[in-house]
Amino acid sequence: MSTEKILQRILANRRDLTRKEVASAIEEKRAASEGFLTDEASARLIAAELGVEISHKGQLPKILIKHLIAGLNDVTVSGRVLLVNKPKVFSRFDGKGKVARLQIADRTGSIGVVMWDNKAELVDEIHLRELVRVKHAYVRRSNRRELEIHVGERGSIQIQPPGLNEDDYPAIENFLTKIHEIKKENKYINVEGTVGREYPISTFQRKDGTQGKIKRVVLEDETDHIPVVFWNEKAEEVARIKEGDTVLLMNTKVRENRQGGRWELHLDNSSTIEITPKEEDGLNIKDLKEGMRITFLEGTVIAKPVFKRVTTKRGEEISLAIFRLKDETGEVQVSAWREQAKKVKNLTVGTKVKLKNIYAKKGYNRLLEISTTASTEIDIWQ
Predict the structure, then answer these.
(1) Which 8-state DSSP code applies to residue 61?
(2) Which residue has the higher pLDDT, 238 or 318?
(3) Selection from 207-211, 249-253, 286-290 with the highest mean pLDDT
(4) Which of residues 351 and 316 earns the better pLDDT score?
(5) Which end of the chain is more exposed for a tag (fewer CB within 10 A), N or C?
């Protein structure tokens, strides 16, 4: 449907508006997108804002999160995963339903993703920090009047899809709060720190006679420390956590400690936890798992790096070097980005390297690989 036809449809349904007013609104929407939206996409957004339904074949172009509004259908949105909640089963008039939730972010903001029925099962394959593309989704407001992307029967989610560049999306570290910054106004925060002290799981009796579980630790960062309380399934999830482990806590509730007046953090099934064990002797390649943050990994180069320049969607040209690393337990591909790529471009077969502060993820071919970050350190020796 052309922009003109959409404009005519709006005028037919909103006789209180003039053609000049609608055309001006469309142009303002397009200009505000800084060239991201076409005239047609801008017109569809204005129609949705005015409550005018526009049917169409195909699919709207990719939209940044800040441009989403309630009422949009068949949208495509991409973002970095900030939160993963397991599926919940509920009863409805036609039987049992299932729902799971994500939170994703792009450079303009973050938004919740609600996955229904068989789509909810996809969360078992999705991990923090991954990039996802949500297709054929629709936008609604939640009971709390917050915008959400819904993935129903027609919708789909691609994990680490081709065509998306890691550097075009904000790192998860951009959404973290330092412990000393926690305030009374905070209801939910994301925080990362080291376990300074941990206590055994304890049980308690609920009012309905069932048994609950609770585990406490003290979390530290370079600014302060704070008590953390894990409830029920989350207590079981961190049962083997040790002092010195690094933990990332996403969507964590902030509460006032009744006894000391200080703040403490509480985690339940709406929270997501990532644990990086304290590695005394490093990690073997055979033990790598998708989504794992790795303190350090040692190995021998078995394939000369392929060095190239790649262009991000923002037009930024950056360096990438790809090589293979082997230890006594296996081998893995390493993707080194930006400055790290320049450090390894001249590596030769047989060179030994030690990679610090890296993570394991699935590449475009869905095979596990190691990827560097801005904080990665690389030691090289013969």
Answers:
(1) P
(2) 238
(3) 249-253
(4) 351
(5) C
Site of tokens 């409830």? 231
Please state, in angstroms and rounded to a whole number, the distance separating the CA atoms of residues 250 and 336: 27
| DSSP tag of 173 | G
Fold held by 58-172: OB fold (Dihydrolipoamide Acetyltransferase, E2P) (2.40.50)
Tell me if the pTM is above 0.70.
Answer: no
Architecture of domain 176-276: Beta Barrel (2.40)
Q: pLDDT over 90 for what percent of the chain?
A: 37
Beta strands in the chain (DSSP E): 75-92, 95-106, 109-116, 131-141, 147-151, 156-159, 188-198, 202-205, 211-220, 225-231, 246-256, 263-267, 272-276, 293-311, 317-327, 330-337, 352-362, 368-371, 377-381
Confirm or reject CATH 3.90.580.10 for domain 285-381, answering yes or no. Answer: no
- pLDDT tops 80 at residue 379: yes
51 Ramachandran zone, left/alpha/beta (phi>0; psi -120 to 50): left
The length of the chain, given as a count of residues: 382
pLDDT band of residue 59 (cuts 50, 70, 90) is very low
